[in-house]
Amino acid sequence: MSSSDLFAPLRDAAQTLGLDLSDVQLQQLLDYLGLIQKWNKVYNLTAVRDPQAMLVQHLVDSLSLIPALRRHLAATPGQRLMDVGSGGGLPGVVVAICEPTLDVSCVDAVAKKASFIQQVAAELRLGNLHGVHSRVEELQVAPFDVITSRAFASLLDFTTLTRQHLKPGAIWMAMKGQHPQDELAALPADLDVFHVEQLQVPGLDAQRCLIWIKTRA
């Protein structure tokens, strides 16, 4: 299945999510998918190999974050986002393509995966995208406005490892599958889970939710 065969399904999924993406952005997303397929042969970025499945399980699944992220960014544009345990760049690369004014750092402890992100940034000319090779707890960097993750770790580990990188008043946005009741219960009392948003992923028959967290004032 070629990139052109996936263009219409991707456009339709984006429209279903309420996202008005340009043809250039849609093509960038498909070019990114092509790079995953190319590098996957050497770097094992994902266990999913079928292009149609990759489209839904990776691109469209990551796109489901964008409407919520845009609502948050509307009040204060020009922010910085860190995607933790980004792996092959999900959702960080998708965010960088959809939000070109947002500075996105994809952090991963595996050097090859950070190198892949850097390659994606170069080939797709995404000046707002950075691949960072580091264990997140050892990272020396200015704090971020938003920290995201997708299947990175438990909510407790996610927030504990990244708390030092969160600006005052900033938020975590964690993408999860089923409602993680046990993980929510394990969070410390000084964290406020102020919204749990159900995500509908076009073409995916599985539960998804987005956990919004901030520190209590």
Count of discrete alpha- or pi-helical segments spanning 4 or more residues: 8
Instruction: Tell me the CATH topology of the domain at 65-215.
Output: Rossmann fold
CATH-scheme architecture of the domain at 65-215: 3-Layer(aba) Sandwich
Mean pLDDT: 93
Roughly how many Å apart are the termini? 51 Å
Number of strands: 7
Largest sheet: 7 strands, mixed
Low-confidence stretches: none
Subcellular location: Cytoplasm
Family: Belongs to the methyltransferase superfamily. RNA methyltransferase RsmG family.
GO molecular function: methyltransferase activity
Function: Specifically methylates the N7 position of guanine in position 527 of 16S rRNA.
Would you mind describing this structure in some detail?
The protein has 217 residues and is an alpha/beta fold. It has a domain at 65-215: Rossmann fold. It is built from 8 helices and 7 strands. It has helices at 3-16, 23-43, 51-63, 66-73, 92-98, 111-123, 155-162, 181-185; strands spanning 80-84, 103-108, 129-133, 144-150, 166-176, 191-199, 208-215. The protein has a 7-stranded mixed sheet with strand order 3-2-1-4-5-7-6, sandwiched between helices. α1 runs parallel beside α3, α2 runs antiparallel to α5 and α2 (23-43) packs antiparallel against α6 (111-123). The relative contact order is 0.14. The model has no long low-confidence stretch (mean pLDDT 93). InterPro entries: rRNA_ssu_MeTfrase_G, SAM-dependent_MTases_sf. GO terms for molecular function: methyltransferase activity. Pfam families: GidB (PF02527).
